[in-house]
Amino acid sequence: MLSVEPLFVVILVGLLGLFFFGFLLVRRTLTGLREGYEDGQR
Fold it and tell me: Which stretches are transmembrane (predicted)?
């Protein structure tokens, strides 16, 4: 059984959370921009 540092696990989970949050933020921003552009075309 490998011994895993608890601090390493906490840092890894934090980084994954930040990455996921950033991905959702960018996706929401891009969809909002696209919808605004499409509304502007009409």
Answer: 6-26
User: If we measure between CA atoms, which residue out of 24, 21, 42 comes closest to residue 32?
Assistant: 24
**What is the token pair recorded at 37?**
């552009």
State the sign of the Cα–Cα–Cα–Cα dihedral 19, 20, 25, 29: positive
The rounded distance, in Å, linking the Cα atoms of 3 and 11 is: 16
> Per-residue pLDDT tens for 1-42?
568 799 999 999 999 999 999 999 999 999 999 999 999 988
Q: What angle do CA 29, 15, 5 make, to 5 degrees?
A: 170
CA distance 24 to 39: 22
